[in-house]
């Protein structure tokens, strides 16, 4: 099985702790990824959070709900995750969260592996999700600042 790796970086005008808490809460993942429409069965431990997420793929009038199991490992300045998806697609990802002047830098890194026939599609979808996630994080934290 082949794999690919890619990253994006987003700068947020928010404290590191606030960003970490937001990304560590599975409920905040709905809409953070444009594919995630539901999270359920949240199980919290001291260093990890496990949950089930529903990704919705649409193509014209066709719709497919992809149920995935997610584990978020909570570390110092990082949240890493593992996703097992049907079809043999595996994603290991991480948010590296660091202070920068005036806010927080979030590096969103993916290592994706998939069978030959799915790799290109899965990579394309994951890259779109990553870019959208950065925009949505920026929007959410800008909205919090304007409400304060």
Automatic annotation (TrEMBL):
A Pfam family this chain is assigned to: Polyketide_cyc2
CDD domains given in the database record: SRPBCC
Gene3D superfamilies referenced in this protein's UniProt entry, alphabetically: 3.30.530.20
InterPro entries: Polyketide_cyclase/dehydratase (IPR019587), START-like_dom_sf (IPR023393)
Protein name per the record: SRPBCC family protein
Lineage, uppermost ranks: Bacteria, Bacillati, Actinomycetota, Actinomycetes, Streptosporangiales
């Amino acid at each position: 099985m082949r794999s690919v790796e890619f990253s994006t970086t987003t700068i947020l005008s928010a404290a590191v702790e606030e960003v970490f808490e937001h990304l560590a809460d599975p409920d905040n993942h709905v809409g953070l990824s444009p594919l995630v429409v539901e999270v359920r069965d949240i199980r919290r431990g001291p260093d990890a959070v496990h949950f089930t997420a529903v990704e919705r793929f649409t193509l014209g009038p066709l719709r497919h709900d992809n149920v995935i199991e997610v584990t978020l490992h909570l570390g110092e300045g990082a949240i890493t995750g593992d996703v097992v998806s049907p079809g043999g697609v595996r994603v290991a990802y991480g948010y590296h969260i660091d202070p920068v002047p005036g806010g927080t830098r979030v590096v969103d890194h993916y290592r994706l592996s998939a069978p030959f026939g799915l790799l290109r599609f899965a990579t394309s979808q994951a890259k779109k999700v990553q870019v959208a996630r950065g925009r949505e994080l920026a929007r959410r934290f800008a909205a919090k600042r304007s409400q304060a």
